[in-house]
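Record 1 of the preview.
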Amino acid sequence: MGWPPGPVTEMSLREERGVSGISGNLGSLPSGQGGGRVKISNMAALSQNLDTDALVEASVKSASLPLVQMEESQARLENRQAIWSQVEKKLESFRDASSSLHLEGNFNVFKPVLPAHSGFTVTATDNAAIGHHDIVVESLARPGVAVSSGIRDADRTSVLNIPPDGAFSHGIITFLIGDRLVGGEYKTVRIDQKTGFTLGDLAEAINNAHIGIHAMVMRTGQPGAPYSLSLSSSRNGLNFSVEGTEGIGLSFHTVQKASLAHLTVDGVPVVSSSNDVKDAVPGTVLHLRRPTGQVPVGLSIVHDRKKITANLSRFVKTYNDLIDSIEKFSGFNKMTGRAGPLLGSFTATEIRNRLATALTVSGGDGGRYRTLADIGLTFQRNGRLSYDSQKFDRALSSDYRGVSNLLAGSSVHPGLITHLHDITVELTNPANGPIFGEQQAISSQSRALDKEVERKQDEIADLRERLEEKYANLQGVLGGLNVRQNYVRQQIAQGNI
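->
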């Protein structure tokens, strides 16, 4: 009969597949019948209904469950790293706030007190001293100023009094810098074909000579000759004059004599070449604006309590922000049953305990203020600081040095905030601080997990490839079985089986 050469049975069909483990109704042998006749099910339907893509995806999905868990662990590590970064920023802000109060010099903050419209302003430095001074400004410092005759165009008209005749055309202007009889010095500036001959060229040549005179082109608006050259001494009190203009068709006249500033401080005469007079009142700069007349202006230098109060307010706020952040991430939510990412963290507990201890100890040099509570800072039951600004301001008013000694201390007795600041510097150390250690540990775990994820991804990719190959082979076997089934049916129909 040709192919197939032997009798067809259920066993022979299973052996023909060549792949074990396939489920489905391949047919059954009728009980009590002989003659080798079998009942064959529809193998074509089995082949068509077998969704191998879905089988592959189901197997891959099952094998990917550990990968999903690893990715969730990665997300938790990233979240924990971000949380430590937030805590670190809060701690750095608190450190910076404490740095404005931890040194004795931080309390050398002064401000001037002046009547309105006094004719001058004052900048007080850290070296100022408390006190009162009477100031009289007699005159301001001014530069010498001269101006030239005008010309029609600043950028095209030649300033030479003879037409340029090639490379040999030039002009020379001679200045006397200073007073003729007291150390005056002659300086010359040349213009020629190389520099150019316009008013703008002359101004540039004078400025490039660096002889103590500043030149600029100005528009005066004079009919027919609206542009002139304005010259001024580079420093107040320095006189100069134009002594010669060889080949230059300009004339100059002085419009302002140079002068020094004259003032008295507590009756003592002061002379300055600048209107910003430094250290006439020790530790200050007087910015002169106009003469004051003969009536002295009272200047008082006092402690800038407002700045110190603002610094302390920032200190309290940044501390409470830090504690809020630590509590937020290390607490336990009874409503949701969820623990914060830092719950049980030794580092979080260490930060909070060390700072709290430093805030509640006694300090000072034996004066009237011994604790933070004495000056308006109270440590609350919830771990926050409470700040009574009025009590603190009263403490500053009555014993400024005592407050300074308590907070910043001195060379002999470190202050409370001095010690606290040292702790924050240690905690935020970028090389070996505890937060750095936490972040390093997380980074190490993350790197190890990344390698494990990569290994698992390769493993799953290999599994997918093997399953796709296996099911492709299976489809081939089922296709062969369909051909065999059709042949068997034909033989049955013809009565050959």
